[in-house]
Design brief:
single chain, alpha/beta, five-stranded parallel beta sheet, 6 helices, 5 strands, 15% strand
Length: 144
């Protein structure tokens, strides 16, 4: 007959196996559903988000391209914060409680910028996939 100690060891092993290999809940996993995350959205979803928040002071459109790229045309009302020029250090000037729509030329820099924002405590971040190129392809307005 197995000892109580052996039974406890087997039970612990089974619970570990259950959690690691089958994904069942053993009560020790963190619930990721309530953790902040970056929401990747399409250009159409970004436009709808902009329209819904047009008069909100708590909504910021953040263009993370270079100043010369920004000057060639940007989403109306966008703020420029160059990803390549001390982006992470500059984040301290921004309110972490506001909602941010982040975009770049194609979506690569903005995805990285959004992750950095998340790592720095920003909670409401939307990354526009396809960047300004997709915005232009969609026939949406630019500001210079």
């Amino acid at each position: 007959m197995p000892s109580k100690r052996n039974l406890i060891a087997v039970l612990a092993l089974l619970l570990t196996f259950c959690g690691v290999f089958t994904g069942c809940d053993t009560g020790s996993a963190v619930d990721d559903a309530n953790l902040p995350s970056v929401q990747n959205i399409s250009v159409a979803e970004a436009k709808a988000l902009i329209d819904r928040n047009a008069v909100s002071a708590d909504f910021i459109i953040l263009d993370v391209r270079t100043p010369s790229e920004y000057a060639q045309g940007h989403i109306p009302g966008a703020v420029n914060l160059d990803y390549y020029a001390s982006f992470e250090a500059s984040l301290s000037a921004f309110d972490k409680t506001k909602t941010y729509l982040v975009y770049c030329r194609t979506g690569n820099r903005s995805a990285s910028a959004a992750r950095l924002m998340l790592d720095n405590g920003f909670a409401a971040i939307y990354n526009m996939q396809g960047g300004i190129n997709a915005w232009i392809s969609g026939g949406l307005p630019l500001e210079t």
